[in-house]
Structure formats: structure tokens, C-alpha cells
Amino acid sequence: ILVRLGLTEELNALGKLFAAFDKDGSGKLSMPELQEGLHKVFGLDDALIQAQEVMETMDVDNDKSIDYTEFITATANHTALLSEENLSRVFHFLDVNEDGNVSFNELVAKLDAAGLSKRSRKTWDQIMETYDTDRDAQLSQQEFISLMKKFVKLCDSSSEHLESH
């Protein structure tokens, strides 16, 4: 999705950073890899690095590692992602049948194709229940934009919390 939004340069830089952190090439960052990477990037003493907090914030699926998608999500330029134009583009990308709404099936199909739908059906049901304000079992463009803005604000507040420690 970042490529479709024209953020390829940022995505490439973040991909290189992830690869540099991923010493064993597993596609996931372990706590020691994260700690070493943070030390190299920020030049901080290991004792000063709050790697555990960073891990907890980025590790969305709670598998004790950070995969590429979690890393990109946590480190991407959220201000650029939040523009109405970009959110509208993402919405239209997800709206496969072009009916002006994104159904659960459309959402999961696109996320499956991108390797992003690791969340359980319960999680998706909670998302739909919270953001499907008209209860039609799909997200309108406005409902989708509301969801994305709240999600990105959560990511940003988590990042600010980390920076203050």
C-alpha cells in the first residue's frame, strides 16, 4: 500500500534498516536483534535502551518478535499516510467491487494478498463493530478514514511514549 501511495523511497529505506537489524535473516526481529539495532542506530548504551518497551509496542501479534509488516507500520511516516488523498486511495484500492464500501471479505482478501491478515476473526469483528457506525457490515469511506486516523494516532502516541523514556 505504501508503494501505491508513492512512498517507495521511505519504504526502501525502512526495508534496508529492517534487513540490517535482522541479523539471522529470519524475517523477524528478536529482542537481541532489536536491542543491537537500536544501539547501532541511536548509539546508546545497552542499559539506556528501552528495547522491551519498543518490542511491546511494535509486536502487534504478541509473538515476541517484530515482523517486517509490524516494523514498517510502526516506523512509517504517519503524517504522510494520514492525508485525505492517501486514505482515499487506500479505500478505493480495498473497495474491490467499487460499490463505495469495503466489506469484511474485501478487506481480508486484500490483506491476505499482501500477507497482512494475521489477525483473528474476533479482532476483525471488533474492528467492524467499533467503526461500522451504520451497522451495514461494511465500512464506508468515512468510516474507513475514521478507523485509519484513530489507528495511526494510537501508533503515534505509542511512539511518543517510547521517545519520552
In words, what does this structure look like?
Helix 1 (about 10-20) crosses helix 4 (about 70-75) and helix 6 (about 85-95) packs across helix 9. Residues about 160-165 have low confidence and may be disordered. This protein has helices at about 10-20, 30-40, 50-60, 70-75, 80, 85-95, 105-115, 120-130, 140-165; strands spanning about 30, 65, 100-105, 140. The two termini are about 30 Å apart. With about 160 residues, it is mostly helical. The strands form two sheets. A two-stranded antiparallel ribbon has the order 1-2. It has a two-stranded antiparallel sheet with strand order 3-4.
Largest sheet: 2 strands, antiparallel
Order of helices and strands: HEHHEHHHEHHEH
Strand residue percentage? 5-15%
Main sheet: strand order: 1-2
How would the global form be characterised? elongated
Set down the secondary structure blueprint.
Layout (H helix, E strand, L loop, with lengths): L7 H14 L6 E2 L1 H12 L8 H8 L7 E2 H8 L2 H4 L2 H11 L6 E3 H10 L7 H11 L6 E3 H23 L2
Antiparallel strand pairs: 1-2, 3-4
Main features:
two-stranded antiparallel ribbon, 4 strands, 165 residues, mainly alpha
Summarize, please:
This protein has 165 residues and is mainly alpha-helical. The protein has nine helices and four strands.
